[in-house]
Design brief:
4-stranded antiparallel β-sheet, 6-stranded antiparallel β-barrel, 383 residues, 7 helices, alpha+beta, 24 strands
Length: 383
């Protein structure tokens, strides 16, 4: 016989429902605690390169043809010489000094060769004009060898370009959008030579940090040791050596796949980056300020130039006299003092700067002055 409660549910059904609610709340709380603990965490693959697996830069010089009268002018000597050399390889001899075409442009072709790229793989290339061409829109890149720093050819580029801008001009006006002298060829280069790495055949691999830091190097080693038990040790601020376990040396790819996806709570250096050209200020999380008093006042100077003209009466014998009239007005705003207590956080620093009602340019000046006084415990980098 089932015992019914006041809401029509049996006692067993009520207990089951309450149990499900408690379990759901428990998993929600556990998930929130896990996410809070992982705040500020990053994977090892974002923090460093494993065994120096990085990209390599390639560069080449080539010609873009098929332009609609927007190519290099006839006085661009190297374009005419390059065109003459290319035609000569095809059995056509021309004089570079008498060659006049405006549908050809000399360009530099650049790309990044990814690690472990194999022969026949396709990569994107960027094409940029180096002459006086107005636009390379609609052009086709002629076969261009791409070389590395060692002078070896690693890829060949060719194909039509995609330009993210345009140029339209007439007799008295022109319209331009973005940069019509820079284009991109998707899958425009074919890899002809591989960069072979033999560093994965041993019993040890190396993780090179993108931004060397002793704390992050130690945390990476500790995180790997938690998973594989004493397999890693930090050599210095930028290097962590990892020993591949015996049972995984036959398949190092599986081991490295697990290692690069481990989460590590990163430690950021206290830094403030200032871009004076655009007025941009980026303040890091760990920035601290000692007790300091700030007073910032603005001085505005207004100079107005005018001319007073004194003319003689009609039919008079006098001369017109021009007397310059300069008016200078100086206004200085009353300064206010603001007290910043020692050890304030980044939020409190931003609130204090916003309370002064100053512009971003003034914030840059204040930060530089606080740094000069020794009260700012962070690196101030001006770019």
């Amino acid at each position: 016989m089932a015992i019914l409660t006041g809401d029509g549910m049996s006692y067993r059904e009520r207990v089951h429902r309450n149990t499900m609610i408690v379990c759901t709340l428990f998993f929600i709380v556990a998930f929130l605690l896990f996410m809070a603990g992982m705040a500020g965490a990053a994977r090892i693959k974002e923090m460093g390169y494993i065994n120096g697996a990085r990209t390599n830069q390639l560069i080449g010089y080539g010609l873009v043809t098929g332009l609609s009268g927007t190519g290099d002018k006839s006085n661009t000597i190297f374009t005419n010489q390059s065109l003459a050399n290319m035609l000569e390889t095809m059995g056509i001899r021309v004089d570079p000094k008498t060659t006049k075409v405006n549908n050809v442009a000399a360009v530099m072709v650049t790309c990044n060769l990814p690690p472990f790229a194999r022969i026949g793989s396709k990569i994107d290339v960027t094409v940029s004009s180096i002459g006086d061409a107005k636009s390379i829109e609609g052009g086709v890149l002629v076969t261009t060898p791409l070389k590395g720093a060692d002078g070896q050819v690693y890829a060949m580029a060719q194909g039509p370009m995609v330009v993210g801008g345009f140029l339209a001009s007439g007799q008295g006006a022109s319209v331009q959008k973005n940069h019509p002298t820079v284009g991109r060829i998707v899958n425009g280069a074919t890899i002809e030579r591989e960069v072979i790495s033999e560093q994965y055949k041993g019993s040890e691999v190396m993780i090179a940090l993108k931004m060397p830091d002793f704390t992050n190097a130690r945390r990476i080693a500790d995180r790997i040791n938690e998973t594989f038990g004493g397999a890693a040790h930090a050599k210095d601020a930028g290097t962590v050596n990892v020993t591949i376990p015996m049972n995984m040396r036959g398949n190092p790819v599986q081991f490295l796949s697990v290692v690069e996806n481990l989460d590590v709570k990163t430690d950021m250096q206290a830094k403030i980056v200032v871009d004076e050209k655009t007025g941009t200020v980026v303040i890091g999380e760990n920035v601290r300020v000692s007790t300091v008093v700030i007073s910032h006042g603005n001085i505005s100077v207004q100079v107005k130039e005018d001319a007073r003209v004194s003319q003689p009466m009609p039919f008079g014998q006098g001369q017109t006299v021009v007397t310059p009239d300069t008016q200078v007005k100086v206004r200085e705003d009353r300064g206010k003092f603001y007290l910043l207590e020692a050890g304030i956080s980044i939020r409190e620093l931003v609130n204090a700067l916003n309370a002064t009602g100053i512009s971003t340019r003034d914030v840059i000046t204040i930060l530089q002055t606080i740094k000069a006084s020794g009260a700012l415990h962070a690196d101030l980098e001006v770019i």
